[in-house]
Specification:
Layout (H helix, E strand, L loop, with lengths): L8 E6 L7 H12 L4 E6 L7 H11 L7 E6 L10 E6 L2 E6 L13 E7 L14 H15 L7 E4 L11 E3 L2 E9 L5 E6 L12 E4 L2 E4 L1 E2 L10 E5 L4 E6 L4 H5 L6 E5 L2
Parallel strand pairs: 1-2, 1-3, 3-5, 13-14
Antiparallel strand pairs: 4-5, 4-6, 6-7, 8-9, 9-10, 9-16, 10-15, 11-12, 11-16, 14-15
Helix pairs in contact: 1-3
Length: 266
């Protein structure tokens, strides 16, 4: 039975930017269907078509929202193709978006209750474009979920979804080899090396090598180094990042996604 008594939170994560009206249009679609929805923007500045960056941002945000939140994710280079549109139910939340792996880092297999392929066009907009499923499919589906439509009414259950995996961290004789997987708004270069990977090594003695750049020691905070100096730090995601205090490591050092980083004790 549909209900409007308890407002539901719907979050948005896209690569649309904010110059165009795409995000606002999606919100208008939702509010027409479910006027009581509470809408929250995670980000609309995911690099265009960069599925891994979107997946990382989603994973970083999901734990901080109340149970029952609906997360709408539209980083969708395959829009209009045969890629499936999904809603994924976990024990804590719902995820609406394309089946291209962008949902997967936030949805461990052990948390999945069911995966629904969105096939019931009753819950889409009547007129649909091949280029804007955020407006025509994902937004209305999220709104109907927020109204209380049962997830099984939205389509057919499927056993699997596309999954991403982070590049593996490789152990070497005197350290670790990883790579840059995300560059944030501040120009901090975030790597796939997790805090747990550092446990066998004395942090103060680790030397980071990124191209010709060398940074000695993992420090506790940005303020641990002088203004303009580089720092190696474990960030709020629990991952090692390269930063420059009050500056952009990406600009200072020409860092790029996928670039190798080596941590050694010699």
């Amino acid at each position: 039975m549909e209900h409007l008594l308890n407002p539901r939170i719907i979050t948005f994560l896209t690569d649309f930017g904010t110059r165009d009206a795409f995000v606002g249009i999606m919100k208008g679609v939702i509010l027409e269907i479910c006027p009581t929805a509470s809408l929250v923007d995670l980000s609309h500045e995911v690099p265009p078509q960069h599925i891994l960056s979107g997946a990382l941002l989603l994973r970083s945000a999901v734990p901080y929202f109340p149970s029952g939140t609906i997360h709408v994710v539209v980083i969708d280079p395959g829009v209009g193709s045969s890629r499936r549109a999904l809603v994924v139910e976990t024990r804590q939340a719902y995820f609406v978006g394309p089946d291209n792996g962008v949902l997967s880092l936030a949805v461990p297999e052990s948390d999945v209750v069911r995966v629904i392929h969105l096939t019931n066009e009753q819950y889409f907009l009547p007129q649909r474009s091949q280029t804007f499923h955020g407006r025509d499919v994902f937004a209305p589906v999220a709104a109907h979920l927020a109204r209380g439509v049962a997830i099984e009414q939205l389509g057919v259950e499927v056993p699997t979804m596309e999954r991403l995996s982070l590049p593996p961290v490789r152990q070497q004789m005197h350290g670790l080899a990883g790579c840059i997987i995300h560059i944030d708004h501040f120009g901090n270069a975030i790597t796939n090396i997790a805090e747990a990977d550092l446990r066998p090594f004395p942090r103060a003695a680790l030397l980071a090598s990124i191209g010709t750049v060398r940074i000695c020691g993992v420090v506790a905070s940005y303020a641990s180094v002088a203004i303009g100096a580089p720092a190696l730090i474990v960030n709020s995601w629990g991952l090692v990042e390269i930063a420059v205090r009050n500056g952009s490591a990406a600009q200072c050092f020409g860092l790029q996604l996928g670039q190798p980083i080596f941590l050694t004790t010699h």
